[in-house]
Amino acid sequence: YKMHHKPIENGWIEVICGSMFCGKTEELLRRLRRAEIANLKVKAFKAKIDSRYSKDKIVSHDKNTIDSIPLSYSSDLFDLGNQYDVVGIDEAQFFDDDLVTVCKNLAKNNTRVIIAGLDKDYKGLPFGPMPLIMCEADYLDKLSAICMKCGKDASHTQRTTTQTEQILIGEADAYEARCRGCFNLDKNK
């Protein structure tokens, strides 16, 4: 798609979603870097709960980084982000449902909002505010990973541990990307 990098009369909402290991964070970082090259004012935020690699940076699996502000509540996002041209949000599935309203308000404030997050949890169910924010998106990209079993395109996240809580912060030690055929819900219980 073709779009202006700087919102002219209105901002907009872009969503990057998919399973684990599909490149969501890498794509978010790419878009934020391009906005910085265009001399736009950019600020990145992430869910405070995600401290896998760093508490104050967004870090991709490839170890690319950008400075970020960790947030516990999406309600803090507007006050911190409303003076920027572009706001990036990583791990959006960990935020509360107020994220949708905050992002809509940022877009009305002429901010380009770029959101990355898991669309489904390990049970294959919609995750956090992601279904709502996907419906609100002006632009939506659903990325696929590579199935760790067969090599096909993967859109599911298979948990490989016995924990049953919805939120379990982990990487390849606890999750694998799986295609629909190799995704085994019985193993996720």
Specify Rg, calculated over alpha carbons: 16 Å
How much β-strand is present in the residues? Answer: 25-35%
Strand order, largest beta sheet: 5-2-6-7-1-8
Termini Cα gap:
40 Å
Determine the fraction of residues in helical runs and give it as a percent range.
Answer: 10-25%
Q: What is the quaternary state of this protein?
A: single chain
Number of strands: 12
Biggest sheet architecture: 6 strands, parallel
Shape descriptor: globular
Structural class: alpha/beta
Q: DSSP helix count?
A: 4
Helix-strand sequence: EHEEEEHEHEHEEEEE
Could you name the key traits of this structure?
189 residues; alpha/beta; six-stranded parallel β-sheet; two-stranded antiparallel sheet; globular
Report on this structure.
The structure is a single chain. This protein is α/β, with parallel strands linked by helices and 189 residues long. It has helices at residues 24-37, 77-81, 98-108, 130-136; strands at 12-18, 42-47, 57-59, 65-67, 69-71, 86-90, 112-118, 139-143, 145-146, 153-154, 156-159, 175-178. The strands form four sheets. It has a six-stranded parallel sheet with strand order 5-2-6-7-1-8, sandwiched between helices. Strands 3-4 form a two-stranded antiparallel ribbon. The protein has a two-stranded antiparallel sheet with strand order 9-10. The longest helix has 14 residues, at 24-37. 39% of the residues are buried.
